[in-house]
């Protein structure tokens, strides 16, 4: 169970970076695939060692897992290609955080249109509010 959680966390970190900073240029999809495979393998490889350490001390095992997550996050932020040749890490250091339009653009890469989904949710909420008002 913990292994599936770690692998899902690896995928989630990649998705968050690619949704937040979608201007990856022509090699972004290749980077996503290769990075995802490499970090999944790295996590699987170190998972055995972390389990051994957790056997002796659960706290040290948790710290090692957090260190691996921090290393992965930093490496992705440092190496992820951007069309403006500025790394994501430099953008974060300068305070250039993604806005709503950028995240919407990034989520469209994964087939999710946030504007459309939010519109559907607002309509459903309005309909349920009308039903509740009629019941009152």
Provide structural commentary.
With 136 residues, the chain is mainly alpha-helical. It has helices spanning 2-20, 28-56, 58-79, 88-94, 100-108, 114-135. Helix content is 79%, strand content 0%. Helix 2 (28-56) packs antiparallel against helix 3. The longest helix is centred in the first third of the chain and has 29 residues, at 28-56. The model has no long low-confidence stretch (mean pLDDT 86).
Largest sheet: none
Radius of gyration: 20 Å
Structure annotation, total helices: 6
Distance between the termini: 46 Å
Give the mean pLDDT: 86
Q: What is the assembly state of the chains in this entry?
A: single chain
Report the β-strand fraction as a percent range: under 5%
| Percentage of residues assigned to helices | over 70%
The low-pLDDT segments are none
Shape: extended
- Class by SSE composition: mainly alpha
Please count the beta strands (DSSP E, at least 2 residues each): 0
Helix-strand string: HHHHHH
């Amino acid at each position: 169970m913990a292994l599936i959680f770690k692998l899902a966390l690896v995928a989630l970190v990649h998705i968050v970076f690619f949704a937040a900073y979608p201007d990856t240029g022509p090699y972004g999809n290749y980077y996503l695939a290769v990075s995802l495979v490499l970090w999944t393998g790295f996590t699987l490889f170190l998972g055995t060692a972390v389990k051994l350490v957790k056997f002796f001390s659960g706290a040290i095992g948790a710290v090692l897992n957090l260190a691996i997550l921090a290393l992965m996050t930093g490496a992705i932020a440092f190496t992820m290609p951007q069309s403006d040749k500025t790394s994501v890490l430099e953008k974060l250091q300068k305070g250039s955080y993604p806005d709503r339009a950028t995240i919407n653009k990034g989520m469209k890469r994964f087939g999710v249109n946030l504007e459309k989904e939010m519109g559907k949710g607002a309509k459903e909420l309005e309909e349920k509010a009308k039903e509740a008002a009629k019941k009152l």
